[in-house]
Write a structure and sequence with these properties.
Shape: globular
Number of strands: 10
Helix content: 25-40%
Radius of gyration: 19 Å
Distance between the termini: 14 Å
Number of helices: 12
Strand content: 5-15%
Largest sheet: 10 strands, mixed
């Protein structure tokens, strides 16, 4: 992922927080959705399993691509997204970041922290643009939570406190001029179980939606198949402070079915160092061979790619290039509608 670890952001949500009308609404919608999910049958796409339906016959399970199910759980309609879209990771005080390529329609202010940061668009515009670059006036500004799987990376993990801060800050972020929140999910820490993590993530995304914020989920390539997310990383690297994915690969499939459809954009990071070039297969092949097909429920699929790869196309459209090999690399149900540039130099 884009590197960086500067701490900052909002304080964690506590039990004494007063909920806004929008937050209360999404809580009611969420409770209703869980009740309906146990009995509802949604007929779009391929059969999958929803939260709370572990024993349900396959033909009765809501599907990941079910619009009704996603909407009940707080899924937004990303009408403000321009497609094909061009995103850009703007790093803070990171000399290895190059200026944006092309004209970004989404500008992600990235530090890499377990805390939501930045929380003001002034900081996003002024402190997160390398080489003097500024976001276009028409670009949608995203803040970020989470980060990469580097050394000692507890401060970049997705945590309960971090997701609580998203809940409490969502209306303020919208009022401050943000259009969305990026969730860089590469390590986890502090969750008692998969259900604990899943409910916290749903609640965070749902509150973003209720506040009118778009949401983006980015992971290393196909997600859980990186050692850091699946196994919690090596103790010698992070001193055992991150945790393995709760429940292993089975619950990750459930996450793809139940939680991914709530996000407006899913973005696999089609790089390791950020400077790879080659075919789509070369740069995007999943770690461990795990399929991207489980992410087909996301409303938009925007791979993150290196700036050097974009330049290597010699003017060919990256979206067209990614789509030309989509069936082979991403799956027949996935259409690429944008890309995000990590311009490491």
């Amino acid at each position: 992922s884009p590197p960086g670890r500067a701490p900052g952001g909002a304080a964690a949500h506590t039990s004494r927080t007063r909920y806004s009308a929008e937050q209360l609404l999404v809580m009611r919608c969420y409770a209703t959705a869980l009740a309906l999910a146990a009995v509802a049958t949604v007929t779009h796409g391929h059969p999958t399993q929803a939260a709370g339906t572990a024993g349900t016959a396959e033909s009765e399970r809501p599907t990941a691509r079910g619009t009704e199910f996603a909407t009940l759980l707080g899924g937004s309609s990303p009408d403000s997204l321009v497609t094909p879209g061009v995103g850009y990771y703007a790093g803070k005080e990171i000399a290895s970041y190059g200026p944006p390529i092309g004209t970004p329609t989404v500008w992600i202010c990235f530090v890499g922290s377990s805390e939501l940061t930045p929380t003001t668009t002034a900081a996003c515009k002024d402190g997160y643009s390398p080489a003097g670059s500024k976001p276009p006036s028409t670009a949608l500004l995203f803040t970020n939570i989470g980060g990469g799987a580097g050394a000692g990376d507890i401060e970049q993990s997705i945590t309960p406190a971090g997701l609580s801060s998203v809940v409490s800050m969502a209306p303020t972020l919208k009022a401050n001029g943000f259009s969305g929140v990026s969730f860089d999910m590469e390590t986890l820490s502090g969750f008692a179980s998969f259900d604990d993590f899943s409910q916290a993530m749903k609640y965070a995304v749902g509150n973003c939606t209720a506040a009118g914020l778009l949401t983006l989920l980015t992971t290393a390539k196909s997600g859980i198949s990186t050692g850091a997310l699946l196994n919690g990383g090596l103790p010698s690297v992070n001193n055992g402070r991150t945790q393995p994915w709760p429940g292993g690969t089975t619950t990750f499939a459930t996450f793809q079915e139940d939680v991914v459809p709530l996000f407006d954009i899913y973005s696999p990071q089609c790089y390791s160092s950020g400077t790879q070039v080659g075919s789509v297969h070369d740069i995007c092949i999943p770690f461990g061979g795990i399929s991207y097909a489980g992410f087909s429920g996301a409303k938009h699929f925007w791979p993150s790619v290196g700036g050097k790869w974009v330049q290597s196309l010699n003017g060919a459209d990256p979206v067209d290039t990614l789509n030309a090999e989509s069936g082979t690399n991403f799956g027949p149900d996935i259409t690429v509608t944008g890309y995000i540039v990590f311009n490491k130099i």
